[in-house]
Amino acid sequence: MLEEYLRHFINARQKNWVQLLDVAQLCFNAQMSSSIGRSPFEIVFGRQPVLLHLVDHPYVGKNPQALNFTKKWKQTTNIARAYLEKASRWMKKWADKKR
């Protein structure tokens, strides 16, 4: 599933996939599994992760790099979540055809 997700984001030369792997892995592990009723992250750590895109507090610091990082992280995690949900629906549809 991570490979399917990364295909949507890597550049034409396929050299930026390493930069996206951490976000992809976190989003994948934070996603609820229908088979176990919890996310893999919750099974391992006993709680759900705090994801930056879910935090509603605006940035109030004075560090522009931190603000840019937060904005980029939120955008990337939103995109990652959307593609993971799409891949999950596709895999469910494919699996249901085989039953």
Can you put this structure into words, describing what you see?
With 99 residues, this protein is mostly helical. The protein has one domain. 61% of the residues lie in helices and 0% in strands. 5% of the residues are buried. The model has no long low-confidence stretch (mean pLDDT 77). GO terms for molecular function: nucleic acid binding; RNA-directed DNA polymerase activity. Keywords: Nucleotidyltransferase, RNA-directed DNA polymerase, Transferase. InterPro entries: RNaseH_sf.
Task: Using brief descriptors, characterize the structure shown.
4 helices; 0% strand; mainly alpha; 99 residues
Mean pLDDT across all amino acids: 77
Largest sheet: none
Question: How do the helices and strands follow one another from N- to C-terminus?
Answer: HHHH
Q: Kindly, what is the distance between the CA atoms of the first and last residues, rounded to a whole number of angstroms? A: 20 Å
Organism: Cucumis melo var. makuwa (Oriental melon)
Keywords: Nucleotidyltransferase, RNA-directed DNA polymerase, Transferase
Protein name: Reverse transcriptase
GO molecular function: nucleic acid binding; RNA-directed DNA polymerase activity
